[in-house]
Amino acid sequence: MTTAERDHLALGDEFEAQTRQKLVVIGNGMAGARTVEEILARGGGEMFNITVFGDEPYGNYNRILLSGVLSGESDASDIFINPLDWYTDNDIELRAGARVSHVDRIARLVHAEDGTSVAYDKLIVATGSRPFIPPIDGVMNGHGPRPGIFVFRTIDDCNAIANYAQGCARAAVIGGGLLGLEAARGLLTHGVEVHVVEAGPHLMGQQLDAQGGRILARTLREMGIGVHCGSATVQVTGEDRITGLAFKDGTHLECDMVVVAAGIRPNAELAAQCGLTVERAVVVDDQLRTEDPDIYAVGECAQHRSQVYGLVAPLWEQAEVLADHITGTDTSAAYEGSKLATKLKVMGVELAVMGLKEPESDDDEVLQFSEPHRGIYKTVILRDGVLVGATLLGDVSKVSFLTQAFDKGTPLPDDRLQLLFDVGPPTAAVSIADLPDDTQICNCNGVSKGQIASCVSGGAASVGAVMKATRAGTGCGSCKSQVIEIVERAAGGDLAEDPSAHYYVPGVPMPKAALVEAIHRLGLRSASEVFEALADGRDDPASKMGLTSLLRTIWGPEDLGDERDARYINDRVHANIQRDGTFSVVPGISGGVTSADQLRRIADVADKYEVPMIKITGGQRIDLLGITKENLPRVWKDLGMRSGHAYGKSFRTVKSCVGTDFCRFGVGDAIALGVEMEERFKGIEAPAKLKLAVAGCPRNCSEAMVKDIGAVAVEGGRWEVYIGGAAGATVRKGDVLCTVGSHAEVLTITGRFMQYYRENARWLERTYDFVPRIGLEELRAIVVDDRDGIAARLGAEMARSIDAYVEPWQTEAAEPATANQFAAPIAVA
To answer: Quick one: which of 451, 427, 456 has its CA closest to 439?
Structure first.
């Protein structure tokens, strides 16, 4: 190309740029950036020179996922929708970190606080909203919230909360709505005790009625979160540091940090300053225009037909109409408001809400089902045979049909029970195949069924590839199963398998064998070191427990640093948490055999600590239910017994029958073998829990044939060793691995099998899945016949773990591992 040709092209580009209109977008949040995306999709890049102002020094990110950033499940980079490179690639000028100070409608200029100005032909106001801080005494100082008090809205907020939480024991979240519960969820992983304070009578008042709110509160308490409804905060106490919250009724809640998540308010001041009509938010028409025909408003700062929307689905609908109108793609496009239907996860609990949450007249037909102990609540509201509202908490299996009925007016079955459950003929069931292509599947990112299917036909070869390309399923995650089904149907059996299906834990992209080899080779001794070396330094809390268990199996607990946040709460305090936040203590009773002395000690402890319930467990143990956290060390000390391991992913107990001692049919000493097995393998870590049993004859009174490992006595003084049995949610008779002639051989084979399972099972894979996956013949060849020459090593590794085991009741009861390990829960005074 000659110099003259290049100059000619450059002049052409300059002329084209000069002839484009100037489009300025104030706001780089989810609504503003999505609107720009929709404009570009309609050829707007050829029509406009686009400038975007954003308060934050980042690209556009998904605020819905901020709780994952706060908890450490996600890195901030994981939640970006449009990183900085995207703006450059699309020829967009991004003024990141530049706050707009005012708009001059006469001169058609946007002025920023840094002194710069940008001219516009068309202007989009997408300033979103800000956290609402109630007028509570002691919250604000002259510069904003005082130290120790935070709002929860941005990536920077997440970083500030996480850093401050490291020096705190107790955190209070003011606000029991969706935002507050997400903040509480994020705080849980930082080792602080979390309490949610709600001034209203129940949680999530915008989405749930009173009964639904109570059931959700019960579920959260079972997770270890304190819930205080009807508690209006009037003061944050403390001078130099936060010490607590004072409530209107005179009670007090101790805490040393506070997150205010009491709602949001539209950022409409900028629009009001330049003379636009503002009520609750910036008033717009059906084309999202203000009274100035060249200025639009979209998202949480826009008020349409008296409504202001805070959910993302209406924002996506508004963005499409605005883009149609401003590009001239469809000048008749009109936004007529949104029928609010959303499906999301609250603290991991699935929730679907559409339309009315409560009936509005006596003529409304109401169906309701409540099962509080499972956290399930369902209501359906009908008017003149039409679905006008539904709430599904904890069980959203009917959401596809109900959403279709709500959006499209699908005819309802005469048997109304089918609206809540899959019963009777399948008239009420709507499969993914029945849904029209315009059905929105992912509310968080506004992705329809048709868009997901088109992505597959366009070449995406796996579920992961489709999710990455469309963003479907990457928000709260509640739609992921539907996304998978659509992808599988669209692929017609040609779907590539996601490599992550073979990862041992989701946060480290390696199968177990490769992961173990790398841990050995690099000498990695903690979950943090594994993340740093094998996952690009990206910490994944969902993987920590699995990694810690694996590391303890590889190295033994004595050689590991104690990362407390890499354990479940049960493992941190060596007891089983209950629904009300108290704990269950199960003293060790090997083989189910106890003594009068042990029974007296248990009875004395029950009296001393006023244990509300004493129960015999299904595993032949005594369970002390209702022990408070602060009393656990004292209970352990007074009992003077070891743990019965009713918690953790580990060897649990050995159940036994009376064998030859008293039973007329016994052919083997089940009691002696049961005691030997439990004493030998107590506390051994495993990828999932291990339940064992010994039966003195094939009558199987101790259910040995349906345990992870079972020994059954047969004639001739021999023992059959069963593996892979189950009698819980999954029922499976175990497979006979071998028949041996002595207690010692049973212990040897059991140890080898357990060690091979520990080394090769997937995280949380029970033996009843592991045995069929590996194959009985393969396991027999390795464990019994020593085909691969590793039997001695398996036995030696198990012996090393046995020798390294330290009973936690004998150590941490006297010297807690951390100052707050057994801290008392916060009480309302």
So the answer is: 451
What is the distance between the alpha carbons of residues 563 and 549, in angstroms, rounded to a whole number? 12
**Is 402 buried (19+), middle (13-18) or exposed (0-12) by CB count in 10 A?**
buried
Q: Can you give the pLDDT at residue 826?
A: 41
Which pair of structure tokens corresponds to residue 17? 């740029």
Using CA atoms, how far apart are residues 740 and 212, in angstroms rounded to an integer? 56
As a whole number of angstroms, the distance between CA 158 and CA 38 comes to: 29
In the chain, the amino acid numbered 625 is L
Distances (CA, A) of 288 to 272, 317, 325, 339, 518: 16, 11, 9, 17, 56
Longest dimension (CA), the chain: 108
Can you give the pLDDT at residue 131? 94
Mean pLDDT of the chain: 86
- What digits encode the pLDDT tens for the residues 222-239? 888 999 999 999 999 998
Place of tokens 């029945």: 434
- Give the pLDDT score at 651: 86
Q: pLDDT per residue over 614-626, tens digit each?
A: 988 877 889 888 8
How far apart, in Å, are the Cα atoms of 254 and each of 160, 201, 247, 592? 21, 21, 11, 43
Kindly give the interhelix angle for 480-491 and 463-470, rounded to the nearest 10 degrees: 110
Which of 328, 386, 329, 382 lies closest to 360, judged by CA? 382
> How far apart, in whole angstroms, are the C-alpha atoms of residue 648 and residue 570?
6
Confirm if 747 and 680 have CB atoms less than 8 A apart.
yes
In terms of residues, how long is the chain? 829
